């Protein structure tokens, strides 16, 4: 690997001049700058990022904490983050926390050791370490004291309950997402408001996690507990797809016997047959706009809007019955 000394020797300038040119710090004449660029090109030299970041006291890396990358919702958030930070000359370090506190602590330490320029997190982290660096919360926003981007969970809960209420609801079961995650409770509040306004009785079915490994068991338990369910408001698309599979396994027809509405609109929901109706979250935009705020904070620019809440939409597909006339 070529070194900064090789570049200086070929360019006929001092190592200090090459260093100033690389770090854009201090004066370098046009002539010397051109010689350094030519030498870098000829030697195919690239600076040691760790050395550069120590010099500049910040790296060109940005950390992203996600709860569970096996859930198709989160890679969409990561894509939005990556596209924006790449535009701004940064690269991503991803921390897949798998909803595990000790992994979260390890990743936060790794971010600090890599001298990241800032962090975005969709994990409801309580770690004080994150407060010591430019930080933006994504999706699971627990406080408006931090910069944040998420979508309107209350609107989403209302849209899901309205969709079901307008389509011969029968016995309604609302799957409650993990109560430890603030989004779950806000969505539930939106759904309950609409169901009660429509004088509809409903049952709550608690779920411990949003992850795949518990969804199938939850689906089985739901039908065991509520065998006559006719409408299911699921806590996310993974649970929605699992209850659809369980309904079909039990010989039920969707949506005639049981209609289902999910939450997220992950890429698999439209591929299911029948296709899943769901609440579409702007996952990519949550990531992209969060990264935009973070890059502006790192650059010391004024942030117009500290807490951004994006709208959600109802995606009507085959898992809902036809609207009553
Ligand atoms: O499916 C995962 C859920 O957790 C989504 O609804 C998303 O909002 C995240 O918080």
Q: Which descriptor suits the 3D outline?
A: elongated
Percent of residues in helices comes to 40-55%
Strand order of the largest sheet: 2-1-3-4-5-11
Q: Tell me the span between the first and last alpha carbons.
A: 73 Å
CATH fold title of the largest domain: Rossmann fold
Q: What's a concise summary of this model?
A:
This protein is an alpha/beta fold and 325 residues long. 43% of the residues lie in helices and 17% in strands. The relative contact order is 0.13.
Give the tags.
Rossmann fold; alpha/beta; 12 strands; elongated; binds alpha-D-ribofuranose; 325 residues; 3 domains; 6-stranded mixed β-sheet; 43% helix; 6-stranded parallel β-sheet; 11 helices
List the helices and strands and how they pair.
Layout: H1 4-11, H2 15-23, H3 30-43, H4 49-56, E1 61-66, H5 73-87, E2 91-96, H6 101-113, E3 118-121, E4 135-138, E5 147-151, H7 153-165, E6 172-176, H8 182-197, E7 202-206, H9 212-225, E8 231-233, H10 237-249, E9 259-264, E10 277-280, H11 283-298, E11 307-310, E12 313-315
Parallel strand pairs: 1-2, 1-3, 3-4, 4-5, 5-11, 6-7, 6-8, 8-9, 9-10
Antiparallel strand pairs: 10-12
Helix pairs in contact: 1-2, 1-3, 5-11, 7-8, 9-10
The structure holds alpha-D-ribofuranose.
């Amino acid at each position: 690997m070529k070194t900064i000394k090789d570049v200086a020797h070929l360019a006929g300038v001092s190592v200090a001049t090459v260093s100033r040119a690389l770090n854009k710090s201090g004066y370098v004449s046009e002539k010397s700058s051109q010689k350094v660029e030519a030498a870098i090109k000829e030697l195919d030299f690239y600076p040691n990022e760790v050395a550069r970041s120590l010099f500049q006291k910040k790296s060109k890396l940005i950390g992203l904490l996600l709860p569970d990358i096996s859930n198709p919702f989160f890679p969409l958030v990561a894509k939005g983050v990556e596209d924006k930070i790449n535009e701004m000359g940064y690269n991503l370090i991803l921390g897949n926390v798998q909803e595990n506190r000790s992994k979260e602590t390890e990743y936060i330490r790794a971010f600090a050791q890599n001298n990241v320029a800032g962090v975005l997190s969709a994990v409801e982290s309580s770690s004080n370490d994150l407060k010591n660096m430019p930080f933006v919360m994504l999706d699971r926003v627990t406080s408006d004291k931090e910069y944040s981007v998420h979508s309107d969970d209350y609107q989403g809960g209302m849209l899901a309950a309205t969709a079901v209420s307008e389509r011969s609801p029968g016995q309604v079961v609302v799957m409650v997402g993990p109560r430890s995650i603030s989004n779950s409770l806000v969505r539930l509040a939106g759904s309950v408001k609409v169901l009660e306004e429509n004088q509809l009785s409903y049952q709550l079915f608690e779920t411990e996690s949003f992850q795949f490994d518990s969804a199938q068991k939850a689906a089985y338990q739901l039908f065991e507990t509520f065998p006559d369910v006719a409408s299911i408001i699921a806590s996310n698309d993974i649970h929605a797809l699992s209850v659809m599979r369980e309904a079909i396994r039990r010989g039920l027809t969707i949506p005639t016997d049981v209609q289902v509405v999910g939450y997220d609109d992950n890429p698999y929901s439209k591929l299911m047959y029948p296709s899943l109706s769901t609440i579409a979250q702007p996952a990519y935009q949550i990531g992209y706009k969060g990264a935009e705020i973070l890059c502006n904070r790192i650059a010391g620019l004024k942030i117009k809007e500290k807490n951004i809440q994006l709208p959600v939409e109802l995606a009507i597909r085959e898992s809902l019955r036809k609207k009553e006339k």
